[in-house]
Specification:
The first copy, chain A, contains seven helices and eleven strands. With 217 residues, chain A is α/β, with parallel strands linked by helices. In chain A, helix 2 links the parallel strand 4 and strand 5 (70-72). The two termini of chain A are 24 Å apart. Strand 10 of chain A pairs antiparallel with strand 10 of chain B, so a sheet runs across the interface.
């Protein structure tokens, strides 16, 4: 099914990558918005938000206006902003994640299994990103920590233009397991957004995680 | 529960390490045997065998005499010796494995999950061991390959006195996941034996793998 | 100094990347050639060749016609083609390398130092590239092996769309050193070409390696 | 030459390992001291200190009493304690290092080369040690930072019983170089102490680094 969609945060690096991947898949960009910009050629049937947490209210305003599903990858949302998205999820499907790569979801699944099976092992997280990244630690590292349900130390390294590496370490007396995810291109995230967009347009109203999009749970 | 246990192969490196770990956990060594040695202070309620395949019959003889569960880490067992252990498993719990590290079992579980969820990703295995290791690839790398049920390339590196590192890589277009296990001491295997011992003393008769001890399957 | 330059192999991925980086640095593309294409707006003062070994003679023909320095990153050159470049180097500066990343040159320098200081340590090389790469091992891994002047085992992994990772391992009894280079974008090679171009236009006639461009030796 | 030596910090893990390696090499332990313990069978011709910075004054007291060379691997020394060692170096050879592995010295050499050749690259250090290690970051990580002469961020991970891993990362736009040293046994440090001990007993008075012991500079 061809989706007529809009992107909020259309001028950012992720916004552009998503538009490219959505268009390749045959979907059509009909609405674009950025901080001081707005352009609509047709009414969108889906919104994708990769702008900023501060613009969260404005995004929900757009979504209400169009009455359409929403896929958001905005990072650093506070409790109130999450609540706003959940409320909107009562009337339309909302997919929310800080990371749309399949591999990171698998890293989370493995980490959850290990932390459950190895409760007395030490756990550490490290993440490496490009020197331009402003937040520290990364939203994905925080997602991993949440999944572990443990007070885990996060080490953050900033190097060159690394797209994003995350490692979860488990250390027992006599052995160490490390699970590493490396993004080798930004495209992988855009493909996760595509999957979520195609899920959202036919989903019941609800507030969905990317894990639910992929695995139904 | 405090276990009064015996060790066959008590003078080997693993035998000593196991005794240390079992005693730390509050269990009591009451029977020791080696090729030309035997000492019993009390009748054991469990036997641990880390001797040699050739002594397999003798071990089963001891087990029958004491009528107690058996945990064996003896390597290179032939079909007949395995059959003997399985037969004994009809009357008492027997745990048998060539590798008692919890971490390697976890690496296998994670790898099985990933290969199932990411069927079109590339998979590679690499292993690094000390320069004195004669077999190439390692038995554990072959175990990993078996678990993946795929024709996976194995790279083998031989370096200094590395105890043993194994990595399984999964590569998609845009991301790579790598799962690494590093053995940092022999103690880890002794702890797997401890877990198996505590499992065996309260298990129904049966022939169990180390994976069943850990995960029930 | 602003260089008016030409690119042979202008339509390839490297050709385009190089043009972008050269133009950002203020240089001006005045001549472009590909297999069935040629366009000249002005006579170039430097040629960059990222086409194919088979076109080597044609490239030297262009260079002779313009009487200008040449920077070549063409791979798989045979002895005769190298000889042709060296001969042209008698009248104009020629820079030739199979790898224009500064980091790989540094990896070579470090590896040469370690192999000299740690003669009795084990050495291993591993390289990881995208699944589409046809040669195995990579040309860069072979360059590293040559630099080590030792018969070193090379492990090759093929995973997703990895741009290119190379590791040299040194293993002693009690410690392991590993030196890893990861390419995170093709741009890094284009920047090496830029450095070589700026070197070539003011260099004496000669046949130079990329190491000579960077370190003078 | 057979050395009659003493160890201060004889009951620690390093103290025991050093005694084993020194004795294997034919040297003789004649003096042992720990916080509340002292035992002398003969006057030592060399002292090895692997106790604590707080005991530094006491150690120099012993050295003065015996008038013998000193090899110290005590970590966390303050400026005053270093000054005390230097002063003692005016009369007897003193070797001082926070790390006695050859590999770490090589890591430093490589890092110094890279930081000089790649001045605009980002640099990060990470270190991983066993959960029982009290200081954070490790003395070795601080040594690496000093060698880099840059204000570098250090990430510290504490996992199981890892003997000690150190990585120095260099990140440019388009490539990352990482240099990793992993200790696979504590013995490697004891062997560096042995080398230093044999150096110290025949050296002129002076304050020496382990790099000077190994490379004369």
């Amino acid at each position: 099914m061809k989706i007529k969609y809009g992107i909020i945060g259309c001028s950012g690096r992720m916004g552009k990558e998503i538009a490219a991947v959505m268009n390749e898949a045959g979907h059509q960009l009909v609405f674009s918005a950025a901080s001081n910009y707005e352009n609509m050629t047709e009414r969108p049937g889906l919104l994708i938000d990769f702008s900023f947490a501060a613009a969260s209210e404005k995004t929900i305003g757009y979504a209400k206006k169009f009455g359409c599903p929403l896929v958001t990858g905005v990072t650093g949302l506070n409790a109130e902003q999450i609540a706003g998205l959940k409320e909107y999820g009562l009337s339309c499907a909302v997919v929310q994640s800080y990371n749309y790569s399949v591999g990171i979801q698998m890293l989370i699944k493995c980490s959850e299994m290990l932390v459950k099976q190895l409760p007395d092992w030490d756990v550490e997280i490290s993440e490496t990103h490009h020197r331009f990244k402003k937040d520290k630690p990364s939203g994905t590292a925080l997602m991993l920590k949440d999944a572990l349900k443990k007070n885990v130390n996060i080490s953050s390294l900033r190097l060159g233009n690394v797209a994003g590496d995350h490692t979860v370490y488990f250390g027992g007396l006599g052995e160490v397991i490390s699970l590493t995810h490396s993004a080798t291109s930004r495209r992988t995230f855009a493909e996760g957004v595509l999957k979520s967009a195609e899920f959202a347009v036919s989903a019941e109203p609800g507030f969905y995680s990317f894990s639910q999009v992929l695995f139904g749970e």
